[in-house]
Structures
1.
Amino acid sequence: MLTKEKVQQRNWQPIIKQFEAVVGKNGVMQRREELITYECDGLTSYRQRPAVVVLPRTTEQVAEILKICDRYNVGWVARGAGTGLSGGALPVEDCVLIVTALMSKILSIDLENQRVVVQPGVINNWVTQAVSGAGFFYAPDPSSQIICSIGGNVAENSGGVHCLKYGVTTNHVLGLKIVTPDGSIVDIGGELPEMPGYDLTGIFVGSEGTLGIATEITLKIVKVPESICVILADFNTVEEAGGAVSDIISSGIIPGGIEMMDNFSINAVEDVVGTNCYPRDAGAILLVEIDGLQVEVDTNKQLISEICTNNGARTITSASDPETRLILWKGRKAAFAAMGKISPDYYVQDGVIPRTKLPYVLKEIEELGKKHGYYVANVFHAGDGNLHPLILYDNAVHGALEQVEELGGEILKLCVKVGGSISGEHGIGADKRCYMPEMFSETDLETMQWVRQVFNPKGLANPGKIFPTPRTCGEGAKVNTNKNFESIERF
Amino acid sequence: MLTKEKVQQRNWQPIIKQFEAVVGKNGVMQRREELITYECDGLTSYRQRPAVVVLPRTTEQVAEILKICDRYNVGWVARGAGTGLSGGALPVEDCVLIVTALMSKILSIDLENQRVVVQPGVINNWVTQAVSGAGFFYAPDPSSQIICSIGGNVAENSGGVHCLKYGVTTNHVLGLKIVTPDGSIVDIGGELPEMPGYDLTGIFVGSEGTLGIATEITLKIVKVPESICVILADFNTVEEAGGAVSDIISSGIIPGGIEMMDNFSINAVEDVVGTNCYPRDAGAILLVEIDGLQVEVDTNKQLISEICTNNGARTITSASDPETRLILWKGRKAAFAAMGKISPDYYVQDGVIPRTKLPYVLKEIEELGKKHGYYVANVFHAGDGNLHPLILYDNAVHGALEQVEELGGEILKLCVKVGGSISGEHGIGADKRCYMPEMFSETDLETMQWVRQVFNPKGLANPGKIFPTPRTCGEGAKVNTNKNFESIERF
């Protein structure tokens, strides 16, 4: 690891010269105005300018760059499109930011075996666009899917509205070509769903850039269903909507997705977007998307409507044609943006709870918000129990961010208390590492760090992410301090 | 690692005393006649008697046993029910065999959240039995499901007939309590489908006992579908049946399973079991199980029947009631046993190929069999492209086993050549480690071994499995010899 002393002494010129020899002069950025773009990702409350930005185009260039970093003991952070919400692509002081934006080729499409091989800079939505003509799609669909990159999705194991039925990124990555921090090129997984040997693909997906850089990703694509239908149901209370979610799941139906919005979110969306679909007086709405064979969709639509009615739904609307479906989805898709318009700032939390605890947890979150004096809007993947409480605040108010972070932390602890998790799909990144000891024992975290050491023995790959350290989490935080993993050499 | 010298000198008495202090006298076996049962698993062609067998009942006892092994530098092998087909539970000389048969409690059932927590010795089928009254089942269903244990399923990442739709073991394990070889108790994963941090659950499942022993396993259970239907279609040729498989999958239907049996297997089964269901003159039959809502099953049944007819099916039978379904399945389920009756010995191979290569590969396997002078029967998971060629031979014939292993190896190389894998669901174990370099580069294998070192630094956990060594694979074999992983200490 870098010491402060080394940082101050670093002479970047020979390093940059070597980078330029690999990627050319226009593949390296070091001017202040060029670097500003890269000082944060989607978690805008943390900022740190990198020393230099490098833009490789090939696996071999990535390997050369990492070898240079290894030689000079320089920390590096890989960045896809920079849309992540947990600060996973946040630079650290004196680091190299490796941006995969120019690695944006779809390398091969094999429709017969339902596989697409892409470079990491390929935008999520491009995969679906490339295969939709043949009747396929790429299932993981984060809200940012029109701008986020597959490489970032792999790092954060991204989810989306359709995870409930189709699973998250890890369920759609068959194999990877990765470059490890020492510059080795390693193929993990392959082209088949299951491969012998250790499942390194599983460990790499979601490792938030701490184990290496994926330079080729083999994705599984899925057949577009014959029929899709969106059901909108509105309820007097969040409890009733939560009851409907539980009953739908326990009926055995697996919808593509079940999304919930509370009264605050409904009104925010209607104020800003004006969909005129979501009743402003509803305590909560559910958007349930079902897909499959036409007969299956018809039957499930009826069953879900009955379940919603039995749980107190006031009105139920549904749409099967693409245009009307889009109208029903529009407000949900625009919900985060709407919050940005009605509030100077907002902080998106990401936690998971068992579905059965939905009504209790939403009530508690409301209480926590009141206690701290902030509005908390709830727009989330109800079917997965994946909450996204949006805390509205004004960053210009002195101390507000700290209070909001405290409130966010209390929400996470609540999630853990009821048997849930501190992250559903946004990752731990820089933002949540202090909360890892809430979920994992010291031995559990140590075991993860031993694994990290195998790939990343010098701690150069995405320093300061996932794992808590006393320095960043404050003296009082429960962090494992008995081993200095960052100084351990690989055997 | 043990050296030959140490082996000869080992005084087992103090070690056994310590084991007895942990599990009691009746938890330790060391008499020759007691040990004979444990000298092989389902791969009966390899045999090695362990020095001692220990039967723990709790996580803490497992931890104490592993600490003793660690202290005395004794290699150990964990064994579930011993039904594995790749020699994953094969003892090595002078080792402790840790048998989980007494850890057979179902610890908790949470129907609401669809989770069951079990000890590793719980038999696969017991999980379904425990929850079927409430309308749930445990999906992974290896042929041996009435005798194989969940611990063994976790080690080998077992599959089964229904993997096509439901996935293999790794898709149904949410979390694990494991004991690592140094005796640490670590919780990995949890109760939710996705957890933050590295996916250690994914890496543990399928690691064939080389990373530790799972002592509590949190399984996901699935709702029993409203309707199930089995379709039996017979064809003149394997090629026609293969074409039907491809067309079913590419139609977007995902059946629970698609099984294929060739003419040889059909006749073997009819000779022995006499189902009177499978036409003896058919080149191949397909058994397609579909499940879901009644309307969905009805629609898919019609579509699949049409696809089979278009591919030349001669007759199509189907059954929805449980009794008739069992009759249609009976021959398939008894196929391996039938081979055991018509041939003195048989060797089950396990390889995966892209579905589209089915007709070509089956033809080639037939040619390979002819070349070596052995019958090869094919009974397999056609929907997944997971072949199970059964090579019939007589072990009493001198040299036969070696020839059969050579033929088996050629079949595996063929699988790899067409873009497949050397194991679908039986694991690498002791049997196939020489073929790992056919699939993985030296760097790939090294990376896996670095990970192994983290958990298993002294190489005490299941020695001699998964990874090739020059000693076992012959001088000519392509194995990575440049690093002595077995002698590397953990940091």
2.
Amino acid sequence: METDRERTRRPGGRSARVRAAVHQAVTDLVAERGYGNFTVGEVANRAGVADTSIYRRWGTLEALTMDVAITWLTATSPIPDTGSLEGDLRAYAANVARDVTGPDGPAVLRLVIALSTAGQDGMRARDAFLAERSSQLQTMLDRARARGEQPPDVLEVLDHILAPMYIRILFGAGPLTHDYVDTLVDRLLPLTGPAEG
Amino acid sequence: METDRERTRRPGGRSARVRAAVHQAVTDLVAERGYGNFTVGEVANRAGVADTSIYRRWGTLEALTMDVAITWLTATSPIPDTGSLEGDLRAYAANVARDVTGPDGPAVLRLVIALSTAGQDGMRARDAFLAERSSQLQTMLDRARARGEQPPDVLEVLDHILAPMYIRILFGAGPLTHDYVDTLVDRLLPLTGPAEG
């Protein structure tokens, strides 16, 4: 345990810890109750911070929730750069499989979907999550194109690599084995060879 | 409006109407508030029936919810029988696209996913939904195999036709156009030609 003096000396460290505690509280509450079934006060209580700290920093529960989802996404699925489209797709798919089956993955997925019924702010949060995921992917696919490869487009990766894994997790339809994930990539690859005509 | 005498004369008709009213109340409440945010009493109130009618008929809110999801599924996505695998897959995909974009589709999808966090009863309901969907598909694919065609397996249809459509609806990622749905089927078909070796 740290002393008050240490805390005073490291305001950045404390701020980061508060943020982490608040994020974890949101993730846990989403997993336990589902989005929409808890308040800012309950998040604050569980994270051990004051309500006002949350309102000052995030403004609304929707904005906080969006921050949680986007942070999880950027932190957990780094974009690989292996030098080939095939290598990148395999590494990316393996990363996503690991993350969505991890301790917070299903809760975050359900959170993003629950946001759709949370009015305008919720839809903005959901769209921001999707935009972030798309932007990550676009960077990887652009690099392949720059090397002279013919990558699929972002929506094809969404449809045939992310969507199957997301739905299997959400529906509880079996584990995402290494072979399964590789098969998803195999199905996408033949169509990314040299373009015809 | 019907008279009391008509009601008395058609007990089956009344029973069917109660069932439809209760189902619609559940679907509406799921769309408005999300699963977990309403009670049997609120369903009864909205459907204009007594709580006891619901408890007597369905037992629990989970059992009622499962009935709603399964009924929607069996009623809205009839299994085509066009005489060819390609025709069946195109018709099936078009049916699913129409249903999940219909007035109750997104709410039912979110319901099935929300059931995952509703404990053992909820998970049973979700699994029953998935089993029903799989069983529908298996019938269609078995017919293709009996004709000498090489159909994909059920999970491939789930992964590459249902999952992309479900995720696009859940994430609000664009409309399911006729061209889009046909492209999903096209991607699955080349792999269903004569088996090698």
